[in-house]
Amino acid sequence: MKKRTLSLCLAVGVIFLLSTTYSLAADKLISGNLRIVIGSKSTGGDTYQNSAIVADALAKKLDINVKVDAVGATAAFNTLKRVSNGSTVMIFHDQSYLGYLYGQKGYENPFEQYRIGPTVAINPGNAYLVAKKSPYKNVDEVLKACAEGNNIRVAIQPGGVSEIGYSAMKNAIKIQYPGKEECLVAVNRGSQSDKNQAMFDGLADVINGSVQANEQYTRLPADDQKAMSFIWLTARSKTIQQANPEGMGETSRADLLKYVDPNVNVTQDGKKNFTFDKEFFFLYNKDMNPAIVAELDRALSEIFAEGKIQETQKKSFFIPNFMPSSEAEAYLKDKMAQYEVILKALHK
Amino acid sequence: MEFLSALDPLFFFLIFAGSLIGIVFGAIPGMTATMAVAVCLPLTYALDLNHGLALLLGLYVGGISGGLVPAILLNIPGTPSSITTTFDGYPMTQRGEGERALKVGIVSSLFGGLLSAAVLFFFAPVLADVAIKFSYVEKFLIIFFALTVIASLSRNLLMGLFSGVIGVWLALIGTYDVSYGGNGDTRLMFDFMEPYLAEGFSLLPVLIGLFGVATILDEAEKGIKENTADMKLSLQKGAKFSFSVFRKQKINLLRSGFIGTFIGMLPGVGGSAASVLSYTQAKNFSRHPEKLGTGEPEGVIASEASNNGLTGGALIPLLSLGIPGDSTTAVLIGAFTLQGVQVGPLFIGENLDTWNTMMVALLTANLMMFVTMFFAIKYIARVVMVPKYILYPIIMMMCVVGAYAINYGVMFDVWTLLLFGVGGYLAAKVGIEVAPLVIGFILGGQAEVYFVKSLESFGTLTIFFTKSPIAMFLWVLIFISVGYSIYTAVKAHRQKQAGDNGK
Amino acid sequence: MGNSGLLQVSIDFAQSHLFFPRIIHWLLLIMLVLIAVLQGIPYYRELRAGRKSLPFTSGPFDAPRLFGTIVLTIAYFLSMSYVGDLFPNTGLGFLFMSIPYMFALSLLYLHQRNRRHLLRVTVNAFIAPVVAWYVLAKLFNITLP
């Protein structure tokens, strides 16, 4: 008898707990718990941070629970393919098609395999640096050095965002000094610390880095082994112009603009300069209900119209960049096509 | 002394709450300090930087320390860095000295934590410059050094080495990860496995599968004999804890604490290598190395002093290079950026108040962890008296939670648990040794990256000897360590033979 | 530097993912041969002489409990992700399936199935998953199946 009463009590308790969770409108399109998987495994990185800002705003707007899970690219794509009911969406950046262009395992053409959602922000920090004592002071000198036949070693993480600027420089050499592009050599490294280390070890002349992670290194005195200087930020000039005037650390926006097109020339096709903005956007399951797509578009346009999220983003050195899904898809498709031309030309 | 104004009651409460939650996370097999920090990160949005850091540092220290509880009581490492704690901790529990082992572990943890905090406080910028002298070559040698423990851990040398190499092999399954500088191609698998195994097997599910699930299967095979009555008896019978244990272990404590701090300081080398390395050294320099692994407090001391030594060590590159020393400090970077504070080589100079507050928080977190654990232990130790038919289902359930949560929700990790549970159970039958296998698995990935990358950079094997004075020094250490362990093994063998003859 | 020629290694980055595995394969092979020769042959002799038995054949073997555990666990994992998909992102798959799993596993392991024990088992099977689910999925917002 006692046992039955006890289990009954427990069952009632469980049902009560559940009912509090589910009493929330079931008739809404997006209800209960939205899960955002991201293509990065780190909860300290920019993808997570940016997604957390968006998730927070969405949760308040739609009055639902939104949870960001840093499962990493492969697992995120797998989940996205499996779940079509709109309960799980993904946020990632240009890596999702760059990985495909560079032929990385686990990446497929995102425009065919998934549905592209709205863009939300840009991380303008993608940068290239040299050691402060380096004989090369700017991109021009680096490219010229290659033209003269000197090997220039660039530390990157292969297969994506970190490599695209390297490919662009190679492409520029190919256009300006045909045949000399072999002198720009990739030093394949992993995390930012590995890339920095390659410079400290004297194994790389140029490294890929970011404004956020490397700014303090650029302020070290020149006699410090760790001192570096920026030579190129791949972002568009108009992107950096939207940053807060304070810039990052002690480097103001005006200072940052010195390292951006048109002050730095890395030609894309002989006419215009190459630029790369790391843009964050949503990815959906191919068969997700279009009504949910529209609902998320609507919610996000309202959030961005209110203007509060932009302040949060800028405070964390993100540049707000909202485009509803249809616009975003066309824009990103064009972006991918441009980079595809560059990479095809290099890998011929 | 402006930072004193930040030290209000809330500050200390947050450290306390942090270390308590951290301990609980660390104590659940499969839940780690990293996870504790990651899930509590959103809570810090509402707090200012100092209070946020108080909470997170409490979680960090608590999470690292909590791992010793299941390691000692259940033979399941709560976090990867407490794996070597199981080697001596669990045998002590089986002898009825669980409470004693826990106390020894906690005191060592406190010591390691405080030592590394002191090193951090006084030497952070200097040590950061030392850390960047370690390139792939030197890091490979350190991993290699840690791998030599396999030889001294093996019951049967050949089988032990073989198990270790199998562990390394298992670690290589998956992609050669681009985020470590690999080329992102998969190997050692068929194409259809790619969706599941692209990232390889995750460390924690493998660990709790091999230790937790395999043990339960082994017990199931024997019919789940309840022996809680014996346990109750032996709990009273076992030797009691007293500080005199440490009298002969001062050098061990210091050495292990320093090894932990030092390994923590090297970005990418990570926590498990620290406890493995200091366990090797404890074994090599022990007066009776053959006893390590059979329930000697010495082993617990080495393991725990070093894994708490990590905390301060891993903060060194974070605060003076802007580069995390381990996975937990990688999450801490997020906390800083969210508050608009940049970490990098100029952090300490530009944020002196934050730096001082952090040091106070770290110190307090260690003390609070100690007090909380020391007094809770009497009750925690009773876990061994819970009957197995209740305990095992709970362990299984918690292992599932941990495995699923470790990568934020990947079902394959749960299957890994079972795969390695059954695999570990079967492997033990044919003489494969689990401890060497696990160490091979933990260190295999890094061994590959550092080895292959060194050769890629320099193109010659001689580089491992000639790269730098540090490399040569590491070789000397490796030779001393290996030589010494061979010497003691031979001596022990002779003594045994002499003893046998004498019979 | 003629004498260091043997030690020269050049690694093609595109193929570098196979470099280390190849070394490990050789190591495994060599050790396997060594084990077969140094330990396999003596073992086989002892086996022939009847002094040793094959693995898996000695000691007590409780087949129902062993295989029961494995079968129950497989069923648990399968059903958990299935039910979890019915209630997306709530962790309810975990909660709903843990209760019967724990109950069944406890029953399997129990030697005396009397009322007192059954009561304990039932209470445990309910309370443990509910507490775990509530604290982790609800309070800490951790993703569960």
What's the short version?
The complex is a heterotrimer of chains A (348), B (503) and C (145). Chain B is mainly alpha-helical.
Relevant terms:
heterotrimer, A: 348 residues, alpha/beta, D-Maltodextrin-Binding Protein, domain 2, 2 domains, 14 helices, globular, B: 503 residues, mainly alpha, two-stranded antiparallel ribbon, 2 strands
Please describe the topology of this protein:
The complex is a heterotrimer of chains A (about 350), B (about 500) and C (about 140).
Chain A: H1 2-22, E1 33-38, H2 46-62, E2 65-69, H3 73-82, E3 88-92, H4 95-101, H5 110-113, E4 114-123, E5 126-131, H6 139-147, E6 152-156, H7 161-176, E7 184-188, H8 192-200, E8 206-210, H9 211-218, E9 228-233, H10 237-241, H11 253-257, E10 278-285, H12 290-306, H13 308-315, E11 319-323, H14 325-346
Parallel strand pairs in A: 1-2, 1-3, 6-7, 6-8
Antiparallel strand pairs in A: 3-10, 4-10, 4-11, 5-8, 5-9
Helix pairs in contact in A: 7-14
Chain B: H1 9-27, H2 33-40, H3 49-66, H4 68-74, H5 83-94, H6 98-131, H7 136-147, H8 149-153, H9 157-172, E1 174-175, E2 186-187, H10 194-197, H11 203-221, H12 228-237, H13 250-265, H14 271-285, H15 297-321, H16 327-338, H17 347-350, H18 352-380, H19 388-406, H20 411-429, H21 434-458, H22 463-466, H23 469-502
Antiparallel strand pairs in B: 1-2
Chain C: H1 19-48, H2 63-86, H3 92-109, H4 115-139
Average pLDDT over all residues of chain B = 89
Count, helices of chain B: 23
Question: What kind of sheet is the major sheet of chain A?
Answer: 6 strands, mixed
CATH class label of the largest domain in chain A: Alpha Beta
Strand order, biggest sheet of chain B? 1-2
Whole-number total of structural domains of chain B: 1
